[in-house]
Amino acid sequence: MDRRPDKLLPRLRRGDIAVLDLVDLDRATADALVQAEVAGVVNAAPCISGRYPTLGPEILVHAGIPVLDAVGTDVFRAVKDGTRVRLDHDVLHVGDEVVAAGHPQTVESVALQLMEAKAGLSAQLEAFAADTVQYMKRERTLLLDGVGIPEVRTRIAGRHVLVVARGYDHKQDLLALRHYVREFRPVLIGVDGGAEALAEAGYEPDLVVGDPHTVSDEVLRGGAEVVVRAEPDGRADGLERVQDLGVDAVPFPTAGTSEDVALLLAEANGAELVVTVGTHATLEEFLDRGRTGTASTFLVRLKLGGRLVDAKAAARLHRSRISAPALLLLVLVTLVAVGVVLALSADGRAWTALAAGWWDDAYATVRGFFG
């Protein structure tokens, strides 16, 4: 149980019933619940408020996970974390006692509500535009002149930077970028739970930014530089926890998101290219979850301009590129193979058979080396 999904998700285990309080359950949260193999989801708030067609509920019901919707916040007083409960259609039991009741979501009910919610898109777009203007007024000196961006020890100038958040398709995208990471050795920045995602993928982050509460002690002590997102008034939730671990941390006051902190740090320190994993990249993703904070991310992404590349695009470009060293190695291996064949061949048929075999082996070797 936890009202905040970012604190709840890391603690979930297979077979748990997740109890949260999230209006318009977003895709990233739903994906994490499915991956955790939860037995059910109980939401104190409506999974679909009708403001816009949120992406999460459809993912849960299609995965066969029972969803009990809009049970009210009293469930957090009636049930303690770790209690054995039973989810039965539209009610939640502790023993024989009913502790919460709501509306069960099905494939049919979710489809109907999403269709009705599409009517709210225009209002959401207007609100998003208004939030963008307000953010620009509040933090124009930060966006335009970099005022308030802290200095970091990590060398970023002239290097590629990989910014990882625990969001949309982050596991698949990290896997697709493994050859890119091996070749370019980018600066690795973990945003909130993205630092854990990097560690799970076998990488050591160079920078951990955002909310330290979403990062384990092991990762925080792993040697990465820590930048804590702080409120504009200087309050930094989680800074004390990092310091208690004996780890130095730098606050970054901003009205934006942790994702903004990572992108602004990369831009201000002269990154040559910034590749993002698990972040907001499309209009659908910006509107998903209805957070006003994503308006700031929209402006920050505009600031980076052509230096910003989504992970899927980077993986496609890197996979399709044939480098000069690869071609040279292929030619050299082929020439060596032909020379050996000529030296050993007694007739043309032997030469043909051996040459074909050597060519196949050489090609397989190069393909394996360069992915």
Q: Can you walk me through this structure?
A:
There is one protein chain. The chain is α/β, with parallel strands linked by helices. It has three domains: 114 residues, no CATH class; 181 residues, no CATH class; 47 residues. Helix content is 46%, strand content 16%. The chain is built from 18 helices and 14 strands. A seven-stranded parallel β-sheet has the order 12-11-10-9-8-13-14, with helices on both faces. The protein has a four-stranded mixed β-sheet with strand order 1-2-3-7. It has a three-stranded antiparallel β-sheet with strand order 4-5-6, with no helix packed on it. Helix 11 links the parallel strand 10 and strand 11. The mean pLDDT is 84. Pfam families: SteA-like_C. One of its GO terms (molecular function) is kinase activity. Keywords: ATP-binding, Kinase, Membrane, Nucleotide-binding, Transferase, Transmembrane, Transmembrane helix. It comes from uncultured Mycobacteriales bacterium.
Q: How is the topology of this model organized?
A:
Blueprint: H1 5-8, E1 17-20, H2 27-35, E2 40-43, H3 56-62, E3 67-69, H4 75-78, E4 86-88, E5 91-94, E6 97-101, E7 103-105, H5 107-117, H6 121-138, H7 140-145, E8 160-165, H8 170-176, H9 178-184, E9 187-191, H10 194-200, E10 207-210, H11 217-220, E11 225-230, H12 239-244, E12 249-253, H13 258-268, E13 273-277, H14 283-287, H15 294-304, E14 308-310, H16 311-320, H17 324-344, H18 348-370
Parallel strand pairs: 1-2, 2-3, 8-9, 8-13, 9-10, 10-11, 11-12, 13-14
Antiparallel strand pairs: 3-7, 4-5, 5-6
